[in-house]
Amino acid sequence: MTPAYPAPRVESFFHKDTNTFTHVVFDGDGGTAAIIDPVLDYDAASACTSTASADAVVAFVRERKLRVAWILETHAHADHLSAGGYLRDALDARLAIGRGITGVQAHFKKVFGLGDGFVADGRQFDRLFDDGDTFDIGTLQCRVLSTPGHTADSLTYVIGDAAFIGDTLFAPETGSARTDFPGGDATQLYASIQRILALPAGTRLFLCHDYPPNTRTPMASTTIDAQRESNPHARDAIAAAEYVALRRARDATLPVPRLILPALQVNIRGGRLPEPDADGMRYLRLPLNRMGAK
């Protein structure tokens, strides 16, 4: 049965370098929009940043004459740098994430030795969402679901018949998010997956990432039925204990994400680069033998 609430319009932008989707959800041309999980371009070899991908989103927004009310993060990403701060300023929007970001900030403040200059209370964002919060995007209403397990701050945004699920689930043949990051928990993630699958059957599930095989193009969204039928981590037959064992075994084989060190330093700051040093240059920190050390 199709949900009896308005269907938002969604335009998705795929960032090939990080396999990330940025979604623009809006209530119609000339209306109001939110941008979900925007990407800041980053070249790891040169440590150069660029706003080219974010500017493509801005161009779309301006072409459709949209007023962007919100920049929404599903969590503090470890696999790409966020353009949230850049778009917040460029579009005069509010930047938001889950309240669990404060725990993520506190952990990585220690990892990166950020000292007293970085305050881990979420002030880098305009709003910290709790489970069950609601807010408007023009004529659309958004409901916030807390869906932890991949990270402690993971959220799903339910907007009409669309749910923006972050990394909780991937395309059906790919599975679910890893749970070996600080604050991750396979049992929690299983419960979060069940919460998403309990949404109305016609709900479109918009992905944060896709890692497609050569046989298809990147998939921006999927369905609850497809996940139940085909996803080895979400199919109806899998029980909690089986999922947890499968997830933990898989996590033990995974490498450290390629961009985790630059990404988290930027993303816990709300998608902003560190403040310049006395010489006017901005620097990222590189903790040795900390991430993935055996």
Please explain how this structure is put together.
β12 (155-159) and β13 form a beta hairpin. The protein has one domain (9-255): Ribonuclease Z/Hydroxyacylglutathione hydrolase-like (Metallo-beta-lactamase, Chain A, 4-Layer Sandwich), CATH 3.60.15.10. A 6-stranded mixed beta sheet has the order 1-2-3-6-8-9, with helices on one face. It has a 6-stranded mixed beta sheet with strand order 10-11-12-13-14-15. It has a 3-stranded antiparallel beta sheet with strand order 5-4-7. The chain is globular, with a radius of gyration of 18 Å. It has 294 residues and is an alpha/beta fold. The relative contact order is 0.17. The chain has helices spanning 52-63, 84-91, 101-111, 186-197, 224-230, 240-251, 260-267, and strands at residues 9-15, 20-26, 32-36, 39-43, 48-50, 67-72, 81-82, 94-98, 127-129, 134-137, 140-146, 155-159, 162-164, 204-206, 221-223.
What do we call the CATH homologous superfamily? Ribonuclease Z/Hydroxyacylglutathione hydrolase-like
Biggest sheet strand order reads 1-2-3-6-8-9
- The first-to-last residue Cα distance is 50 Å
Mean pLDDT across residues:
95
Helix content range of the residues, please?
Answer: 10-25%
- Count of helical segments? 7
| Shape summary | globular
Number of strands: 15
Q: Give me the Rg, rounded.
A: 18 Å
For the biggest sheet, the summary is: 6 strands, mixed
- Under CATH, the topology can be stated as Metallo-beta-lactamase, Chain A
Q: Structural class of the secondary structure composition? A: alpha/beta
Q: Which series of helices and strands comes N to C?
A: EEEEEHEEHEHEEEEEHEEHHH
The tally of structural domains comes to: 1
**Poorly predicted tracts of residues:** none
* CATH hierarchy: architecture: 4-Layer Sandwich
Beta-strand content: 15-25%
CATH class: Alpha Beta
